[in-house]
């Protein structure tokens, strides 16, 4: 019955809990990992970061990689998100692990993440 | 270990999966229900609606009530969201149930929902 209630997706909108867990591919169609969750501005409701998870792939463990939300492109054929990320770029990408302190997600961190991925940092 | 990775919340941001399930109160401090999920614009990343769930309260079953995202105010003391909604206003509020067809979440529906709650519909 709960199933019949859920609106998962329309042309324009997607349910937050449908985004979480969705597979992420690179442009070569290689599976990179999945969306762990995303970070939303409390006031504006704007998703600033998608947090990607690469569970054990490439020996990267379950590190969390925040990327600018706008880098996610939904591909209806693949049924997942495509990001223009080469595997090699992940090596030095901003991430947090059990060994590193959690990021503050402040503007300093934001400029670091957006800067790494070459996306203009749009927040004040 | 997964616990140590998660960034649930900062001053400005909140994790999507932290929003889901959070309790919703009215301004009198009465528990109304919880946030089921929220509907995000795929392109802009903007949360347009929070979908509230009132599990069995007031005989309302598990209906889903979409409301404009901006109506949610996070209250750190309560540890939940406060919305300026009187219980009586829920009776005729836009909602979907197992008996009703799922909404299309198009602009017609959007104007209906935002209009009901007296919030200007900001989308084209």
Overview of this protein structure:
Two copies of one chain form a homodimer. Chain A has helices spanning 2-5, 16-19, 87-90, 107-116, and strands spanning 13-15, 23-26, 31-41, 47-53, 64-68, 73-75, 80-83. Chain A has 124 residues and is α+β, with helices and mostly antiparallel strands. Chain A has one domain: PRC-barrel domain (SH3 type barrels), CATH 2.30.30. Chain A has a six-stranded mixed beta sheet with strand order 5-4-3-2-7-6. In chain A, strand 6 (73-75) and strand 7 form a beta hairpin. The longest helix of chain A is centred in the last third of the chain and has 10 residues, at 107-116. Chain A is globular and about 40 Å long. The mean pLDDT of chain A is 86. Chains A and B meet through helix 1, strand 1, helix 2, strand 3 and strand 4 of A and helix 1, strand 1, helix 2, strand 3 and strand 4 of B.
What is the mean predicted local confidence, pLDDT of chain A?
Answer: 86
Largest interface: A-B, 44 and 44 residues
Strand content of chain A: 25-35%
Overall CATH class of chain A: Mainly Beta
Q: Radius of gyration of chain A from the CA trace?
A: 15 Å
Tally of helical runs of chain A:
4
How many structural domains are formed by the residues of chain A? Answer: 1
Distance between the termini of chain A: 44 Å
> How are the strands ordered across the major sheet of chain A?
5-4-3-2-7-6
| Tally of DSSP β-strands of chain A | 7
CATH architecture of chain A: Roll
What kind of assembly state do the chains in view correspond to?
Answer: homodimer
Low-confidence stretches of chain A: none
**What share of the residues of chain A lie within helices?**
10-25%
Write down the CATH topology of chain A: SH3 type barrels
Question: Helices and strands of chain A, in N-to-C order?
Answer: HEHEEEEEEHH
Q: What general outline of chain A do the C-alpha atoms trace?
A: globular
């Amino acid at each position: 019955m709960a199933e019949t209630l859920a609106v998962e997706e329309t042309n324009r909108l997607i349910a937050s809990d449908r985004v979480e867990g969705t597979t992420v591919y690179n442009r070569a169609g290689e599976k990179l990992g999945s969306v762990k969750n995303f970070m939303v501005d409390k006031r504006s409701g704007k998703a600033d970061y998608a947090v990607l998870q690469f569970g054990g792939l490439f020996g990267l463990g379950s590190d969390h990689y925040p990327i600018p939300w706008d880098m996610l492109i939904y591909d209806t054929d693949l049924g997942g998100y495509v990001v223009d990320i080469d595997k090699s770029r992940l090596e030095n990408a901003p991430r947090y692990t059990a060994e590193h302190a959690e990021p503050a997600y402040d503007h300093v961190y934001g400029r670091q993440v957006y800067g790494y991925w070459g996306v203009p940092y749009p927040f004040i």
